[in-house]
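Support case: zinc ion complex. Customer-provided input:
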Amino acid sequence: MRYPHFTRRLLVVLPSVLMCLIAINTASAIEHAKAKHVFYFIGDGMGSLQREVGEQCLKGITQNPDATLLMNQLPVQGFLQTRSANKNITDSAAAGTALATGYKTNNTVVGLLPDMKTPVPSIAELAHQHGLKVGILTSVTLDNATPACFFAHQAKRSHYYPISVQLANAPFAYFAGGGLQGLEHNGDNNLELAKTNGFVITQSRKQLAEQRPGTRVIALNESDKAQHAALPWEVERKDSDISLAQFVEQGIRLLDNDKGFFMMIEGGKIDWAGHDNAIGTLAREVVALDETLKVAMKFYKQHPNDTLIIITADHETGGMQKIGKPDPQYLANFTASFEHFKFQLIELIKNKATYEQAFALAQSQFRLDPLTEEQALDMQKGWALLLDSAPIKFNYKKYNPFIENCLVLAARKAGYQFTTHGHSNVDVPISAIGVGSDWFKGTQDNTVVTRYLYQLITGKPFSVLQEPGQ
Ligand SMILES: [Zn+2]
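Agent response - structure generated as follows:
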């Protein structure tokens, strides 16, 4: 009974935490109209160059050399610093906590202070308390670190089951994502728990479209297990698949009401593609997030006086650098994800295919320039290693030379290089439009976002919790 007990404890602790707040005005005293409709976009792993690669890809897709991403055109552009409480390079849990709650914490921690005990409310929870309807949307799993920071409080991001329990018990109106990692534990099922708490679960676009405004919905896309309970990769998404943009369209329809709404929307696979160093897959995920932003922009144009849209990132993934002239057409011509390439590679390994067969597959995916002798030898050696290794393992921390060469040469062909398969600590862009958007100018710490949002939503200054031990 560990988890229900923790949940009970949280319900007891949260109000007392809120009681011992000390008021410090964190934003300038500029008077603003209140933000009644808030769209808070987070591109996981989306640094400046990820945005640039997305824009180059868009130029290629549209065959328009002047095409730009909407996120790069928003009137307010600034930067956020991303370090966590205990590391120079953050993970998505600590950065998500900073972006969601206004407090730094340690890597792997979700919605707690660095003491790993004290929960801090998220802006989604605060917006709900203020009467706004809340939606949490992601292209990956709903109990993944970034969305979790908006509804859960756990010492480890990998505590998927208790995070999902907190989702099922959340008072929010709308969750939308690929699925749940922490769905079941000892025979208990979190979607069943969510149903008893009044949620309707939908599994398809049609079911979601049938729900009436006011219905509390958890919208999933669990039909394709190969996607790890995430939405399909954008580069190979079929018309019949639901997209993040459609989740937002439905969210607006379900949540719009007199008191307003708060929506957090995560493009989670930008980070996954960044870890893979898969430039073509990455570019399309950024374009997809921009398509999603356009849905919010359409709403903004109808409600410009009380809507705020911000789009930012938790950190950069891949340590990207620009090394040449970008090639928009190369980026736009990818037709399959890196993950699909890996599935095909596994089949070739099982069939003990020759190097020539494997290289033909790599060519069809990456359209590489002719290799140098050294590169060809390295790839041949890598293929021999893949044939020898059992069980077949793909670990982005140490890719096999066959795969690594494909990734490096593809990025180079596009005009870029990755310097890590992990995260980096560069400042990430934040762009905004609407009520209070001017507060997001310049370079600031990532904890300011929620502090400003609180003030813009409630009209009251954010009160900073006196942290334990200070
Ligand atoms: Zn990551």
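The chain is about 40% helix and 15% strand.

Case will auto-close in a few days if no follow-up is received.
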